[in-house]
Amino acid sequence: MPLDLTESELLSLYLFADQWICEPATDWALQRIEGLGLGASRMLGLAITLGVRRWVEPALQQLFYIPMYSLSTSERDEIGSDAFAVISNAQLLLSDQRMSRAACPPPMANVGFGMKGCRYYGILHEKSRCARAWDHGWKEIGLRFIHPEEPVHLSQAMWYIRGHPFNGVSEECRIATIESLPPFFEIETQIYQRAVKRIGELIRMSPYSV
Fold first, then answer.
1. What superkingdom heads the lineage (predicted)?
2. d(CA 64, CA 85)
3. For the segment 12-28, what is each residue's pLDDT rounded down to a tens digit?
4. What DSSP character marks residue 104?
5. Distance between CA atoms of 205 and 202, rounded to whole angstroms?
6. Helix/strand/coil (H/E/C) assignment for every residue in 77-96
């Protein structure tokens, strides 16, 4: 029959077993801690203090889109000031990038000329109805990037954009421009991965930190 140990007891067991380099016992303790259903803030804090790298990303995935200012004092304490600063700074940078992309439509494919097959194809395309329709459609999309309650994440933007009608944009220009957009949204993944790396640098050395 499995032992029903508390979080505190499991942590004590882990630290004792770690001191004596008893890997079967530390493995067992970590698995039991994982089964406790602790919150993301607690798991991230434990990942750092115990040196368990595999806990970093699952916890950060949950915390990354939760405004750090909305966390309780106890949750902030669980995360720790250094990791809290990393996530807060990443969120601020991501917010700036969302606003930038919301305000500035990406250039259409074949900049200045449009695509062959578009009725406005040529040197005047940039001021054509097709180009204006693209800018107008992007304003509608941009509002979703900065929605105060349910923003479209940049990592999900392509799914949303492909479903937007872009009325007035020629089919040729719409398809070609949308297919050129993925690099425009890679910044969110880059910011997230940098946060993972920086938090990974905070965790203490242990057999589980690699």
1. Eukaryota
2. 12
3. 999 999 999 999 999 99
4. S
5. 9
6. HHHCHHHHHHHHHHHHHHHH
pLDDT tens for each residue of 88-110: 999 999 999 999 999 999 999 99
* Three-class secondary structure of residue 4 per DSSP: coil
What is the rounded distance in angstroms from the CA atom of residue 76 to the CA atom of residue 54? 21
Q: Which residue has the tokens 């699952």?
A: 58
What distance in Å separates the CA atoms of residue 161 and residue 153, rounded to the nearest whole number?
A: 12
| 44 contacts 79 by C-beta, under 8 angstroms | yes
Q: Which residues contact 208 (CB under 8 A, 6 or more apart)?
A: 26, 30, 50, 51, 52, 53, 54
CA-to-CA separations, 156 to 21, 145, 184, in angstroms, rounded: 44, 10, 12
CA distance 124 to 35: 63
Q: Specify the amino acid at residue 197.
A: K
Strands (E), the chain: none
**Do 90 and 82 touch, CB atoms closer than 8 A?**
no
Q: Spell out the long-range contacts of 180-187 with Cβ–Cβ below 8 A and sequence spacing 24 or more.
A: 180/106, 180/109, 181/106, 181/157, 182/158, 184/101, 184/106, 185/101, 185/154, 185/155, 185/157, 185/158, 187/94, 187/97, 187/154
- Chain position carrying tokens 């997230």: 192
pTM above threshold 0.90: no
Which three-class secondary structure state does DSSP give residue 45? helix
